Inverse folding.
């Protein structure tokens, strides 16, 4: 018997330990534990693939309150790093920005400049020429630099060079446009901080165009000199002058190649900037584990629909039909409710009788009548706990102060002030002092005595305020109305806070 009791005790202790451990793990595993910033505001924690938790003040909540900023945070879960999560509708696809086409142009310019810088003839294929030694050697040297590839690349580069200046200006304009937006995007900040400056781009473009113009002028002079020397084959001076001008044109071409290399560096940098800016704009709504992303501040009540898109890492701009998924979450937005308007019935007491006169035959006697016990009331009630816990259901229990307006008595003579308990949308029970402005007998007069001759009720009474009490039971007018007429709650977009 003792052994059996010991085994039962051991089993009970083990079960209790497991239960406590499980509850402790559950408490530690709360998604709200991952929220370390914006704890005084609403943070929705998203744990892929489809779990959403509303957190406020480190605890789980069931709704969102108007006027309070709302953030979305990606939970740190296994496999989350393999996807890029973005709030649907927060950032448009980068293809609408014009950055992709501009990046193609700068990439083409960089390629043309690269071909230009490597367009010189290989030494193994050079021809020393068969004309007079000075002119033939100069012509060979010139053709070793100004090859057909040089000419073709120069023509293509000159056609595209202005796009570089436009590309750098486009990056600068996008950075200034997005500088004031609340995006919490380090990628965007890094891209704009390291972007090529307008001064560097303008300087490189101007230097390239100046070198190209200098080469055009030197080439034209050399061409005229070569034509003149060909017309006068026996003129050694003309041949020497043509050789000198060919060397000058070759030097201008070499200088142009040097400027093209400098410009190619700027073009490559602009291409990288455009690619990085395009990715940064596309990631404005991207979620990063542990970093809350601002959603919106909702100004009206309703049901918000939040969608999170997930794209596998490595797919920058998914085409229709690409592997993309999304998760949806619907949550309510409640208003800040501080007052209740209710109607009900009350009972009054604790008041003295009201003086009056009664006539029996020819004699007038001082009399008194009781104040009516029952009164119909309209109540305006403040819920003070709502100022600290606006979205807690139990915050509506306490009602103080409560102002009562009588519906069955003169509201200018009857005043009701009190406190009570209630439930929002249903009703309340209220009690407190009741103030009545009414006549009271002057000293020396009493109920039942005859009225002295030549006097009136006003002569023997004085207006005053009497204090009693009241207790009332009332129902919420708005709540009663919505029992029969359903309240329409609009569907709101999570990013704009408005109906779609």
């Amino acid at each position: 018997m003792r052994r059996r009791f010991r085994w039962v005790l051991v089993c009970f202790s083990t079960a209790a330990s497991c239960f406590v451990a499980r509850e402790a793990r559950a408490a530690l595993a709360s998604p709200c534990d991952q929220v370390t910033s914006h704890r005084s505001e609403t943070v929705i924690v998203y744990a892929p693939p489809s779990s959403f938790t509303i957190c406020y003040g480190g605890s789980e909540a069931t709704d969102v309150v108007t006027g309070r900023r709302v953030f979305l945070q990606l939970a740190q879960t296994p496999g989350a790093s393999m996807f890029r999560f973005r709030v649907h509708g927060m950032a448009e696809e980068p293809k609408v920005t014009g950055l992709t086409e501009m990046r193609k142009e700068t990439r083409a310019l960089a390629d043309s400049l690269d071909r230009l810088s490597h367009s010189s003839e290989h030494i193994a294929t050079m021809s020393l020429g068969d004309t007079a030694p000075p002119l033939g050697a100069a012509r060979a040297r010139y053709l070793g630099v100004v090859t057909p590839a040089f000419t073709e690349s120069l023509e293509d580069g000159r056609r595209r060079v202005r796009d570089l200046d436009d590309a750098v200006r486009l990056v600068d304009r996008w950075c200034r446009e997005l500088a004031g937006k609340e995006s919490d995007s380090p990628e965007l900040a890094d891209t704009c901080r390291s972007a090529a400056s307008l001064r560097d781009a303008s300087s490189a473009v101007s230097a390239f165009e100046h070198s190209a113009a200098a080469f055009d002028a030197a080439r034209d002079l050399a061409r005229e000199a070569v034509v003149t020397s060909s017309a006068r084959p026996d003129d050694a001076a003309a041949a020497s002058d043509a050789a000198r001008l060919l060397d000058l044109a070759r030097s201008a071409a070499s200088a142009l190649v040097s400027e093209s290399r400098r410009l190619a560096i700027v073009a490559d940098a602009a291409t990288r900037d455009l690619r990085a800016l395009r990715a940064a704009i596309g990631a404005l709504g991207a979620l990063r584990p542990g970093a809350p992303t601002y959603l919106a501040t909702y100004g009206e009540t309703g049901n918000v629909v939040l969608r999170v898109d997930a794209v596998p890492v490595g797919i920058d701009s998914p085409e229709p039909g690409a592997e993309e998924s999304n998760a949806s979450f619907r949550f309510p937005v409640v208003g800040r409710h501080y007052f209740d308007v209710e109607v009900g019935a009350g009972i009054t007491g604790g008041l003295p009788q009201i003086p009056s006169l009664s006539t029996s035959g020819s004699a007038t006697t001082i009399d008194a009548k009781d104040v009516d016990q029952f009164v119909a009331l309209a109540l305006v009630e403040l819920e003070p706990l709502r100022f600290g816990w606006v979205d807690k259901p139990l915050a509506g229990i306490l009602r103080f102060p409560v102002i009562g307006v009588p519906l069955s008595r003169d509201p200018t003579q009857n005043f009701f002030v009190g406190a009570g308990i209630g439930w929002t949308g249903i009703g309340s029970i209220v009690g407190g002092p009741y103030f009545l402005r009414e006549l009271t007998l002057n000293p020396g007069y009493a109920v039942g005595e005859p009225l002295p001759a030549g006097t009136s009720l006003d002569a023997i009474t004085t207006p005053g305020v009497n204090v009693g009490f009241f207790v009332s039971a009332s129902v919420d007018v708005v709540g009663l109305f919505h029992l029969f007429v359903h309240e329409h709650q609009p569907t709101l977009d999570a990013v704009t806070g408005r109906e779609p």
